[in-house]
Structure formats: C-alpha cells, structure tokens
Amino acid sequence: MHPTEFPVSTPVMAAWVVFLGVAVFFFVRFVKALLRKNRRGVLLLFFLTLLVLGAAIHVVMLSLSNHTVTQGNWAQLVLVSLVAALEMFVGHTVVFDDIIAAVVFHEPGLLLAYLTVFVLILAFSIELVFQMLPRRLQDRLWLSRHRRSALADRKNHVFIGVTPHAKRLAQSILREWESDGSRGDQGVVMFVDLPGKEDVHTEISIGDIFTSLVSHRKEISLDEELGSDRFVLLRGRMPAAHGEESFESAVGLRRLSDWFRNERTSVYILGDEADNIRLLDLLLADSGVNAKVFCLVDRMSGTHAGYSAERGRVRLIDPHQLAVTHVKFQKPEWHPIHTVEVARDAEGQPLGYVASGFHALCVGFRDTGQEALRFLYEFGSFVGKNRKRVPTTFDIFDDDMESHRGDFLVRYPGLRKDKALVWNEGAVGSDRFWQRYVDIVDTLNYVVVATGDPARNIEVAVRLLETAAKSGKDLSRFLILVRAQQLDERTRGILDFYNRTYHPDGNPVLCPFGMSETVWNLASISGKGMKERAARFYAAFQHSIGGNDTWEKRAKRLTSRTENHVEGSTELLRRQNQDLSCSAFLPSMRVLAGPDLAEAATRIPNVYAGSHYPDKSADAGHLEYLAIQSHLRWTTSHLAAGYVCGERDELLLRLPDLTDYDAVKDARCNHFDWIAVKTYLTEDIETS
Length: 688
Description:
By secondary structure, the protein is of the alpha/beta class. The chain has four domains: 10-132, no CATH class; 135-296, 3-Layer(aba) Sandwich (Rossmann fold); 323-523, NAD(P)-binding Rossmann-like Domain (Rossmann fold, 3-Layer(aba) Sandwich), CATH 3.40.50; 532-682, no CATH class. Helices cover 53% and strands 10% of the residues. The strands form four sheets. It has a six-stranded parallel sheet with strand order 3-2-1-4-5-6. A six-stranded parallel sheet has the order 11-10-9-12-13-14, with helices on both faces. Helix 13 links the parallel strand 4 (265-269) and strand 5. The model is unreliable at 197-216 (pLDDT under 50).
C-alpha cells in the first residue's frame, strides 16, 4: 500500500459510518436518560470505562510505534496514555500526530477502533456539556427545536409555577400522551418557574454555572415525579405591579409569545390565589394572548365568576368544588339515593317516591363542607307520598360556625329560611358534638367529614363509624365521606380495616374523596368530559320534544345578545350547569323509576295541551312522582347555587317557580319536568 493511500476501503468506511451513527444516537439517548434520572454512579462508571478504553487504545498505538515515550518504562507509557485519553474528552486527539504515520495507516482495524472510541468519548462530553450549560442557553435551544409546536395545530400545556397541583396535572397529561402513542396532536409541556426578584439574574453568572454543574435538582425532581422527560423547565419572574405592556414581558417570557397566541395552548396558573389573579388579569389584558387559561382560586365567588362569564376561554378552578364535583359526577354509587328507602309495590317495583326521610351530617363547614352541603341539598332532597319533600335534615358542625354560617347564607340567600339546615353550636370533637351524634345516629343516612385537616378527618370518621356500629345501626344505608387530599398506604389500610371490621359483607362505609390523584387530572380540570355529558343531555332533551336546537346554537344565541352580553352569558352558564346536573342525576332517577317504565314514558306528549299524560293509569301516577322529583331537584339546585324565587332576573339570580311543584301557576312550566322524565327514561344519554 502506498503510504499516502487511505487504509480503509470506501464500502467498509461507509458501513462503519452508518454503524457508528446509530450507535452514537442510542448512546446519547441513554446518557441523556441517565442525566435526567441523576444516575451519577452509572455515569461515573461510563466515564471510567471510556477513559480506560481511550488509554488502552493509546497504549497499543504507542507500543507499536517508534514514539520516544515507548523508550521508557510501562508506568510512563500508561501515564502518558491516560493523559492522552483525558484530552480526548475535550476534543483533542493525537491521531493527527506522527503516530498515525507510524501505526494507524498500517493497521486499518486499529484506525476504526481508535475513531470509534474517540467519537463515543466526544459524544459523551458534548452531551454532558449541553446538559450542564446555564439554563437560559438550554431554554433557547429547546424552544428553537420545538418552535413548530407553537405554530402548528397541536395541544400545548404551559404551567406558570411549579406547584404540587401543576405537577399532578402534568403527570396525568404525560401519561395520557404515553398511552395514546401517536404524537401527531401532541405539543409540548412547559413549566415556568417564578422565583422571587432576588433570584433573577439578567446575565449568565458563575452561580448559574456552578448550580448547573453541581446538580439539576428541580429538573431531576420533576422527572422523577412525572415519570417522563417530555417537558422543559423555564425560568421567568413574578411581574411588577405596574408598567409592563404584555404578559410575556411582565413574566420575562417573550420567547413564548408564539405559544400564548395559539388557541390550542392551555395555560395553567395554579399557585397562590393572589398571585394567580394578578397573572390572570395580565393575561386577559393582553390582546395578543389567545390561549385557554385555567386559574386556581381558593373559593369561587361572584367576582371570580365574572371572569368565566365575560371570557369563555377562562376556567376558574376551585379545589374544594373540584373534590365534591368528582363525587357528584363520577361516583353515582355514593349518591344519597342509595341511603334512603325507596317506596315499592307488592312486587318490589319502585313507585317513584321514597318512604323515609333523609338526614345528613356535615362535620366541618369551611370550603369543602359548604360544597358538600350544596351537593346534598340538591341530590338529597326527595319526594314523599304526599308529593312534597320528605322530612330532611342537614346537621352542621364547625369550630367557627358563626363566621362560616354567615358567609354561606350571604352567598346562598335562598337557604336562609329553610329549617332543614340545623346550625349546631360546639366544636367538632367536643362533648356537645358527640352527644348530638349519639342522639341522631339512628336516623342518619349520610356524613361528610371535611374539617380542613386530612389527618383529623380520618380520626373523626373512624370514631363516627365505631360509634354507629356499636349503637346497632344498620350500615347498609349509611355513608361516611372523608376528605383526604393524599391517600397513602397507611391511611388506605386504616380505612380498609374499619370497613371490613364493621361492614364485612357490604359496600364500604368509609369512603375517601378529593384525593389529588383522582381529581387533579386533565378531564376534571378542563371539564371536557362533563361538557360532552351536558351536551348529550341537551341533545336528548331536544329529541324528546321534537326540537332542533343544539348546544352550539343556544350558546351562540345567548352570547350574541347585543343589549346585555353579560346577562346572556350568565343565563347560558346557568342552563349549561342545569344540563350537567340533570345528566348526573340520571342514576338516581332510574332507581326511582325502575326498569319497566320506559315504554310508558314514550307516551308523554311533546307539548302540553291540557294534560301531561293521555290517561290516569298507574304508570301516569308513577311518572308524575318522577316529574315532581325532577322539579324538586331543579328547585334545590338553583337555591343551592344562590338563586331566590322572584321575577326573572339573571343578573340578580332571581327565577320564578322556585317553589313546590303543585304551587307552580303555569302547567306548561310543569310539563318541562315531564319532558325531563321522558328524556331520562327513553333517551340513551350516557352513550349517545
């Protein structure tokens, strides 16, 4: 071979390049995964292995050459080889020195081996350097690489603030993406960390570099918690009180403007409520922001509701409401209908009304307790044989009853005169509390424990169950719901033990609700599933009356009112919420109806023409009880939402006919309840 000829043939070289390219690709992915998972031990092992390989290849090359270093002893040879191997990690190689002329051109295999080791070492170093660059440079590189997702029709998720709720929600999104498999519709998940002003630097500092070199604690923690590396953590700042023109400028995220302009981007603000509202106001004031916004508030109020009414793209998230909403719409087996005695005929068929009263106890009346009472007031009000609400009692205890009671009745004035609400004096756990419980335990159907302290909730709930069981109470129609934000193995074991001990042959009595893993997911937060449910009910209702209105047409009609846009939006929100509640009440209505009433329900006329039903058969009586129940649910639902009876005014929350079924003056209004019954029994609401 001539000394200047390349020692490896072109086909062999081409095959080696392809092989090495594939090997480097998977090697870099593996190193990146190790960095994400903070597997420092494995990374150190890789470094030492590559160092040994580099030193070994140099030992072989130097020993085969006439290099002056080979004239010394082996210790000197190994030391020089180690230094040369270390130089390979910074991109320096002696392959272009006189060794290549002395050895490599005479040993093609050695040349390929040397180049393979060098490329792997270089790839390892580059990946380490890239991962350890200051975060700002990483951010820019990542954003440039994923910029197409901001401009394409993809679903992007931006979390402002790294909070437990944000991490839980992101985890559900990433899991959904992983199970879906296809990435065509999937965009990116971004976290924006908002440190205090003292933590923000405008220049790349030594501290930034040192922090990056020492660890990536927050990124690594996120990676471990989310179980995925398909996200990026960016750095922003809390906005100043005044002076910023746009949201992106205010939080230091101008490079995200393309994402915020995309209508398919969802922005989640899930931190402290005061900061959340501040950020939300900035978002809404920025006309360039088209993204959907999900904002966490500690409690929904009339002021907050204005955001949703005026801006359809804003969804406010009340965590206490979220916990009870999950029970209402996802746990029909926990609905009050299963704790009362349904009236039945001699053959065991239901008659459409209940034969017993309903008695509930709310232990704790702060935020979740108030939401629970509203749910029970709507779904726990049942019609008796006399066509009126059966005896109903809601016992309420709280450590600060006067404060919470006044706040509640101000927001829900329609409940002020209802004697079913019993406001008890005495703190939760006091002698007065336990004495009252012993006095009423025989008639109790339902208990909600939500004191604000999860550990205390479990303790109180367990004692409530023990006391009920020891008193000889029938636990087959008794439920105790316990607010538990997190359900670890120990707590789950405690609840399982007491359920098995006191009610081994039936359904659980102690039922935890409101856990982060069950309510903080994309379906619950976005409300997409519930919206589809409500739309199905409205479509079924229209079909029952032979109408042709649709969910979309109604929304457009009510929100396009030029004379009062806010009133139209408020009315639309009320009607949509009613469609949703109707869909959730379906299981209860079918328990009262039984399985054999569907054919009779088809005979309910679409329009009232002097009568609600063509005959006065037993089926007609059964259907009338169901219509009365439908009206009772409609009434209690509105009262529990803050409405009062009066001349219609959507803005002042006044509606006529919030009274007993038999007291409604216009029979045509009552016929809507019959149509609701027809919808419940004849339409396939759940799957249509």
